[in-house]
Design goal:
- The protein has 501 residues and is α/β, with parallel strands linked by helices.
- The protein has 18 helices and 17 strands.
- The strands form four sheets. The protein has a seven-stranded parallel β-sheet. The chain has a six-stranded parallel β-sheet with strand order 3-1-4-5-6-7, with helices on both faces. Strands 9-10 form a two-stranded antiparallel ribbon.
- α10 links the parallel β12 and β13.
- The protein is globular.
- The structure holds iron/sulfur cluster (SF4).
- The site of iron/sulfur cluster has 11 residues, from α6.
């Protein structure tokens, strides 16, 4: 009996940007008595179905974007006599769907770190339960990944998690409801040991795959300090102190390392934190800007963000402290107008952000937006290949709509075309070349251009375009660019590297 772990994807590029960490965490959680699991990441290449034998255990992790492919794999491997185990955010939210459509033997809800070994044992003994509750595992008990199983030369960035959960409550995001609002911080030693292991193997680019690397804002501390009961303040202060402790350990890692993370814009009010990030070589961060208008921010419950000129100034603070911003914007909010697209493109330029992504509002399961939308759609009779829009993840990719909520001012096609237009403008060659001044040598500037173009082909064209010729062209381009781009990210291994004290 073998254990397989599969990350489903309907697109494969041969090379991927970031390692899907969960595969290597569950590999680590697999009891040694079952041998090393066979890992398949379909963003690299499709699963070889012939590698699955009767009695094997196949773990499939799904989010709403890849659930349909996950269910297809589930049915195929079940037909070969394997035990099918679904996990991940989507399976947590819709466990019965995995049974109905994915031929699940069992479903794990929540974190798999601690329960996974028990699930395999039960499958091996023919006694699996229908559903397992993995719960929310404490930061101290989150499992480290098995990086020794990572294939050579396939990923640009490794991924290490330092904290899980986010105290905010954005309406389009499910993280705070699935991972919880209480930050679960991993032990500094465990994090640094994993980073060192990766650098020994030749990874110098590491994504800190956190929900929010800045889980305690200065304002949260101030508010907690005003209360008579100081226990809340003490808890938040301890989390903040641990962040600084981690960053001070990271300072002692090789200086060629580059880290990237995800933080809220409030971090710009905290120069001490930004300086610690710079010293720790955290050189970039995805910042959820979402909207450039106050109405848009209100739409997504993110009024702690700024807008207008203040927003541009706030974003520039990151750059001044040596942290490059990948700005994330959402289009199709109820308050958006045709002018919002131009205003966003202008802001992205003015605010000196290094990379940007422009996504279209999608009601993802587990979010406040989804619940509201599902209620509003109760009487909608639209079906695509027999599937209601409120189950959009079950609609085949080729015919899946890109815009879901009727907009008060713009048709779906207009939102899609304008979104594509902003991507085109931001990633036009002259604009990329202009932005590439943020690195010094000609070689680095060329690398910057290559990475920007790859980013755009992988995410903009394949994600937004409804024209299948454009999607397949983008996929081909992404495949061509991916291999040479990956080489830019590799570094000589450092097998002797020690864990800094
Ligand atoms: S979008 Fe970011 S800040 Fe908002 S809840 Fe999700 S993780 Fe937190």
């Amino acid at each position: 009996m073998r254990v397989h772990l599969v990350n489903p994807s309907h697109l494969a590029f041969g090379v991927a940007v970031i390692t899907p960490r969960w595969l290597y965490v569950l590999a680590s959680a697999t009891p040694a008595s079952y041998g090393d699991p066979v890992i398949t990441d379909e963003t690299l290449e499709p699963l070889d179905i012939n590698s699955i034998a009767a009695g094997d255990v196949v773990g499939i992790g799904i989010h709403s974007g890849n659930a349909l492919r996950g269910y297809e794999i589930g049915r195929l491997v079940k037909a070969r006599g394997a035990h099918v185990v679904f996990g991940g955010i989507h399976a947590t939210l819709f466990p019965e769907e995995s049974h109905e459509l994915g031929a699940a033997t069992t479903v794990v809800k929540g974190d798999g770190d601690l329960v996974w070994g028990r699930v395999i044992d039960a499958c091996a003994h023919g006694t699996p339960e229908r559903i397992y509750e993995g719960g929310r595992v404490d930061g101290e008990r989150l499992t480290k990944a098995r990086w020794d199983l990572l294939p050579q030369d396939r990923y640009m960035w490794a991924s290490v998690q330092t904290v899980r959960g986010c105290p905010k409550h954005c309406s389009f995001c499910s993280v705070w409801r699935t991972d919880g609002q209480k930050p679960r911080v991993r032990a500094t030693d465990a994090i640094v040991e994993e980073i060192v292991e990766l650098r020994r193997k030749g990874f110098r680019f590491i994504a800190l795959a956190d929900d929010n690397f800045y889980p305690v804002a200065l304002n949260d501390l101030k508010m907690a300090d005003r209360r008579t009961d100081k226990s809340g303040y003490d808890r938040l202060k301890a989390i903040r102190d641990e962040r600084f402790e981690l960053m001070s350990r990271m300072e002692k890692l090789p200086r060629d390392m580059v880290f990237f993370t995800q933080i809220t814009m409030e971090a710009a009010e905290d120069p001490e934190f930004l300086d610690a990030m710079r010293r720790a070589n955290i050189k970039g961060a995805l910042v959820g800007i979402e909207s450039v208008t106050p109405e848009g921010l209100k739409d997504v419950y993110k009024d702690f963000n700024l807008h207008g000129d203040e927003l541009a100034e706030r974003l520039k603070v990151f750059r001044r402290h040596g942290v490059h911003v990948l700005g994330s914007f959402i289009f199709g909010l109820p308050s958006d107008t045709p002018s919002t697209f131009d205003a966003t493109a202008a802001l992205a330029e003015k605010a000196d952000i290094t990379f940007a992504q422009f996504v279209m509002l999608t009601p993802f399961p587990g979010t406040v937006d989804f619940e509201r939308w599902e209620r509003e759609m109760a009487t909608d009779e639209t079906r695509i290949q027999g599937i209601p829009l409120t189950r959009h993840w079950l609609i085949p990719q080729a015919v899946r709509p890109k815009v879901y909520s009727p907009h008060p001012l713009m048709a779906a096609n207009e939102i899609r075309d304008r979104t594509q237009g902003v991507w085109d403008e931001f990633y036009s060659l002259p604009k990329i070349w202009q932005r590439s001044k943020c690195v010094k040598s000609l070689k680095s500037r060329l690398a910057f251009v290559l990475v920007s173009k790859l980013y755009r082909q992988m995410y903009a064209n394949t994600g937004i375009a409804t024209d299948s010729a454009r999607v397949s062209r983008a996929e081909k381009w992404a495949r061509m660019l991916a291999a040479p781009t990956r080489r830019l990210f590799s570094a000589p291994p450092m097998p002797e590297l020690q864990v800094p004290s």
